[in-house]
Amino acid sequence: MSYSVEPRLHPVAIVELRPTQITVGMREVEMKRIHWRAEREEKGADFLGSHAVPVVIGPKRHLYLIDHHHLALALYLEGEEQVLITVVADLSRLGKDEFWSVLDNRSWMHPFDAEGNRRGRDEIPRKVSGLVDDPYRSLAGALRLAGGYAKAEAPFSEFLWADFLRRRIKLGLVERFFPKALRKALDLARTRDAEHLPGWCGPLD
Fold first, then answer.
1. Contact status, residue 112 vs residue 19, Cβ threshold 8 Å
2. Which of 99, 191, 118, 129 is nearest to 159 (CA)?
3. Inter-helix orientation angle 157-166/178-189, to 10°
4. Which of 113, 157, 195, 198 has its CA 20 to 30 A from that of 150?
């Protein structure tokens, strides 16, 4: 996603950040943990300085994370206490119902569970440590890195791909034979069935 944001960066405690989605791809979180360990000693401060997470200020001035959930969770699991944020919007004057309506309208929330079903906002965890694994989100992330589709500005584009793959690849294959599932995903990504998805790269020749 791209945002019009304040240029100032603010360090905040990761435990204060409230998610706006229910799931992440834990394989992708693990990859970010490994990357952070490699960067921490020599480039830790520079890395964090260039990876500020976007937030919206909500009712009672709670901070709602609207992107980079995987990074925030990875840093939390690695024992980091703070992350830099940049404020996208201050919606603190809104009531709770209106606040969530605005987030939904602007595609700043994704309240779908690990089976791809939309849930109520009360099922969104209040801390990043409560995010749960959606194996298909991991598959969609790996598919993009493998060139299956291009990075797109559309909100939650990886989740759209995850839902596409969820309907076509069995969960057992994703969980037990991930490389094979990825090869199948690569084939599916170049079919006409996927042309409605963000970042689609065209059909197989």
1. no
2. 118
3. 100
4. 113
Taking only the tens place, the pLDDT of each residue in 10-39 is: 899 999 999 999 999 999 999 999 999 988
Q: Are 151 and 59 found together in one domain?
A: no
CA 50 to mean position of chain CA atoms: 17
Q: Which two tokens stand for residue 67?
A: 């992107």
On whether both 68 and 99 belong to a single domain, the answer is yes
Our count of domains for the chain comes to 2
Q: Is 132 exposed, middle or buried (0-12, 13-18, 19+ CB in 10 A)?
A: exposed
- C-alpha pair distances (Å), 130 with each of 22, 43, 182, 197: 8, 28, 27, 28
CATH of residue 58's domain is 3.90.1530.10
Report which of 151, 147, 128 is spatially closest to residue 68, judged by C-alpha positions: 128
State which residues form the domain around 42. Answer: 10-133
Q: Convert the pLDDT of each residue in 105-159 to its tens digit.
A: 999 999 999 999 999 999 999 999 999 999 999 999 999 999 999 998 888 999 9
